[in-house]
Structure formats: structure tokens, C-alpha cells
């Protein structure tokens, strides 16, 4: 892509080790444990620790063409923050009036492992692979945005413009699958960032992962907002015949205008429904995820989304209520006031109604569905629509066929064991 500027090595941000795989559930684990958002180190002797609001009420919006977030909030781990300040001559308003498009920067990720594990009792998998960190789709509501802070970046515009990629993801995966004692269970692709975001067209890292999983007869589940998954039908269809794969298309809205604002670089809603149809025709079990459901914004579309997906061939469905952890609160609230000023207050009030008075609740069993009258009604609506449209079929993938193929030429089993 013409606006990408590859870099060879990752920058060292605040001394953090980018080689460590980030478990997306860590953020919410901190919430549940009551750990403060940022490190609580005391200031150095003789130095003053500054704390300046990231975006003052008078700051002009930073909306960029083709991007989802309208702000770039500071990293919650930084002890000092900078904020735009008008000098009294209205120069800041002039500077922000016509911001140029932001380029996408690719940064090499030196991870030494690629499978992240979790013990969350309310999700259907215990391991995942994310070939990319950050996501160019720019979905403003994305719960994965706060994970970018672990890498030294802002969860706002940085999340969708500064993307880390793992060039050795396939080789590292094969080494991990060959480790003695490895027990196969479905691996999730797309649990944190989309495996088929635009840069996948060029880098093909997700395809490389699928090629490894296919050779090992390893089960995999895929969640994506992209029709780019159709490119890999040649791998997925044979895996489906061996009951090794399920694909789920995330459809947030059927309104093209709303989708363009919420998820500016994702596939259009009709294209996602078309992808469901094509995957189904290829014999690949496919479902739909109506997520997130946002009160007073897209929640009225739930039944129509499930109906459209069922007619396209989807076999099962799911939904998630909007979640706003950490910096995502500010990002989503600013976006609401920018695009829907007439209903922003009402939307946020309804979100608080489902999150015990706050904008997020990370408790197990509640974080995906919320609590309260509205959340209960949404759950009942989904259950009824899923039954009506036959979207309550949940098959189990086969993990028993897993086996390590012969080692690559020139490497003995003993040599592979060293990895």
C-alpha cells in the first residue's frame, strides 16, 4: 500500500519488551484485581511529576479522514502528558482545521513466541494467535485498543496507524507446536486484532499461520470483519472437511453510513454478508457475530443482522454488548460527540445502566452481556432471534487429529527439540 512506511526494527518504548506476547485478557484481569491503570512509581527526587489533561474541553477534534478515533489519548503508563494549548491567537484551531491523512507505519515485532494463553472462564478458547498488533480497520469501539499502551503507544490513532507485525510468526508457531507435551485445542485467530486487516493482503502472515495449522491438523477458529478471508478458501475448505475450522464474520450494522463512521477501513456490511455466503458454499462452517451492540446506536438492528446472516448461510450467531475499558472510554465518548452530538449523552447513560453505573465492568460473566433491565432484554432478544433463524448450532472442532508432520529437511527431531 502506498501509505505504508515499513521499519526494520521496533523502537524501544519506555524499556518495555516488545518480544513478550501480550494476552488481551491481562487488561481486564488488572481491572478485576483493582490494580491502578498505570505504574505508581514515586517521582525522582528534585523532579516534578506533571499531569495535564490529554484533551482539554477547548481542544479542536483531531478527526482524520479514513480513521476511526478522533483523539490520541496519552499512554496510561506515561508519567508525563502533553496537551495542545492555544496561545490566544486561535492558531490551534487553524492548525487542526485541515489535518492531513495519517500514514500507516509498519513496525517489526521481535516476539519469541506467538501463542498467547488465557484462563478466562467466559470465552470459548484458551489460546490465540495475533499476527498483528494494532488494527488498521480503525473500529472506534474496539476493546483491544488499550493493549497498545503495553507497547508504548496510544490506544487512539496510534492503534490504527502504528501496526506491529510478526514476520516469523509461522516458524515460531511450528516450533511451539512441535514442543514435547503440546496438547492441541482450537486456536483463535482474531481474538484481539483482525487477522485479515488490509496489510494482510501484502504480508500474508495469517495465510502462513493457516498453512502451518493445516499441515499439523490443528483446529482453528477465525473472527474477522474482512472479506479477505475468501482468499484462503483453498486452505480452509480442506480443513473444514476434516472438521478443523470455523469462521465467524463480525457484522456490527447494516447501515453503510454508520459502518463507515464506526469502522472506516473494514469491509462494507453487504460484502461481509457476501463472504458468509461464499464460505458456506465452499463447505466452511460460518457464523455471525453481532458485536458490539451499542445502546441507542445500532442495537435496534440486532434481529435484522441475524436474519440477513442466516439467509446468507450462517449456522450460528453471537453478540457482545459494548465494552469500554481504560482509554477506550475517552476515545468512544469523544467519537460520539463528534459524530452523534444529539444522542451522545443518551447513549452513554444507557451504557452506564448496563455497567453498574460506570462505562465498563470487567467481571467474569458480565463483561460481554452487561447487567440490568436493558442488558436482560438484549439477551432475550438475541436468544429469540437466534432460535427463529437457526443460529443456535454450535459444533465442536476435532482436536484428536493433531500430529506433527516430518521435520523440515536438514533438521533432526533432536535439533528441533532445542527450540
Describe it.
42% of the residues are buried. The protein is built from 14 helices and eleven strands. It is of the alpha/beta class. The chain has a seven-stranded mixed sheet. It has a four-stranded mixed sheet with strand order 1-2-6-5. Helix 4 runs parallel beside helix 6 and helix 10 (302-312) runs parallel beside helix 13.
In short:
By secondary structure, this protein is of the alpha/beta class. It contains 14 helices and eleven strands.
Throw out a few tags for this protein.
4-stranded mixed β-sheet; 14 helices; 11 strands; 30% helix; alpha/beta; 419 residues; 12% strand; pyruvate-formate lyase- activating enzyme
Quantity of strands, as a count: 11
Shape: globular
Q: How do the strands line up in the largest sheet?
A: 3-4-7-8-9-10-11
Order of helices and strands: EHHEEEEHEHEHHEHEHHEHEHHHH
Terminal CA distance: 35 Å
Protein structure class: alpha/beta
Please estimate the helix content: 25-40%
Write down the CATH topology. pyruvate-formate lyase- activating enzyme
Number of folding domains? 1
Q: Quote the beta fraction.
A: 5-15%
Specify the CATH class. Answer: Alpha Beta
- What is the name of the CATH architecture? Alpha-Beta Horseshoe
Overall pLDDT, averaged?
A: 83
Please tell me how large the radius of gyration is: 22 Å
What is the topology?
Layout: E1 4-7, H1 26-33, H2 91-96, E2 104-108, E3 115-117, E4 127-129, E5 132-133, H3 157-161, E6 162-165, H4 169-177, E7 187-189, H5 200-203, H6 205-215, E8 220-224, H7 233-241, E9 245-250, H8 256-262, H9 269-281, E10 286-293, H10 302-312, E11 316-321, H11 328-339, H12 344-354, H13 373-388, H14 413-417
Amino acid at each position: 500500500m502506498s501509505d505504508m512506511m515499513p521499519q526494520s526494527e521496533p523502537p524501544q518504548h519506555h524499556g518495555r519488551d516488545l518480544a513478550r506476547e501480550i494476552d488481551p485478557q491481562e487488561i481486564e484481569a488488572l481491572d478485576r484485581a483493582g490494580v491502578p491503570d498505570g505504574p505508581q512509581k514515586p517521582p525522582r527526587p528534585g523532579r516534578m511529576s506533571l499531569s495535564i489533561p490529554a484533551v482539554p474541553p477547548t481542544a479542536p477534534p483531531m478527526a482524520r479522514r479514513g480513521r476511526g478515533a478522533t483523539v490520541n489519548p496519552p499512554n496510561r503508563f506515561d508519567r508525563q502528558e502533553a496537551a495542545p494549548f492555544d496561545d490566544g491567537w486561535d492558531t490551534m484551531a487553524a492548525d487542526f482545521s485541515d489535518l492531513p491523512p495519517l500514514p500507516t507505519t509498519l513496525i517489526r515485532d521481535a516476539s519469541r513466541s506467538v501463542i498467547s494463553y488465557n484462563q478466562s472462564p467466559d470465552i470459548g478458547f484458551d489460546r490465540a494467535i495475533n499476527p498483528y498488533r494494532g488494527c488498521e480497520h480503525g473500529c472506534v469501539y474496539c476493546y483491544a485498543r488499550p493493549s497498545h499502551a503495553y507497547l508504548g503507544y496510544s490506544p487512539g490513532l496510534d492503534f490504527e496507524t502504528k501496526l506491529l507485525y510478526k514476520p516469523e510468526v509461522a516458524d515460531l508457531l511450528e516450533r511451539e507446536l512441535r514442543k514435547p507435551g503440546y496438547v492441541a485445542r482450537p486456536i483463535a485467530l482474531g481474538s484481539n486484532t483482525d487477522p485479515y486487516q488490509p496489510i494482510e493482503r501484502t504480508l500474508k502472515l495469517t495465510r502462513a499461520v493457516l498453512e502451518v495449522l493445516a499441515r499439523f491438523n490443528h483446529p482453528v477458529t477465525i473472527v474477522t470483519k474482512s472479506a479477505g478471508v475468501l482468499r484462503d478458501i483453498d486452505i480452509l475448505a480442506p480443513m473444514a472437511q476434516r472438521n478443523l475450522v470455523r469462521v465467524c464474520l463480525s457484522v456490527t450494522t447494516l447501515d453503510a453510513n454508520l459502518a463507515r463512521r464506526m469502522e472506516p477501513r473494514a469491509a462494507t456490511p453487504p460484502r461481509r454478508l457476501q463472504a458468509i455466503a461464499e464460505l458456506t458454499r465452499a463447505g466452511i462452517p460460518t457464523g455471525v457475530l453481532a458485536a458490539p451492540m451499542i445502546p441507542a446506536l445500532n442495537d435496534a438492528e440486532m434481529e435484522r443482522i441475524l436474519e440477513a446472516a442466516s439467509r446468507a448461510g450462517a449456522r450460528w450467531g453471537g453478540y457482545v454488548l459494548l465494552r469500554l475499558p481504560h482509554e477506550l472510554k475517552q476515545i468512544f465518548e469523544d467519537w460520539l460527540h463528534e459524530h452523534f452530538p444529539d444522542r451522545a449523552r443518551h447513549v452513554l447513560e444507557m451504557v452506564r445502566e448496563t455497567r453498574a453505573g460506570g462505562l465498563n465492568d470487567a467481571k467474569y460473566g458480565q463483561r460481554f452481556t452487561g447487567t440490568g433491565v436493558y442488558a436482560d432484554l438484549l439477551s432475550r432478544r438475541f436468544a429469540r432471534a437466534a432460535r427463529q433463524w437457526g443460529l443456535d448450532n454450535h459444533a465442536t472442532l476435532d482436536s484428536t487429529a493433531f500430529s506433527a508432520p516430518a521435520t523440515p529437511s536438514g533438521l533432526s527431531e533432536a535439533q528441533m527439540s532445542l527450540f
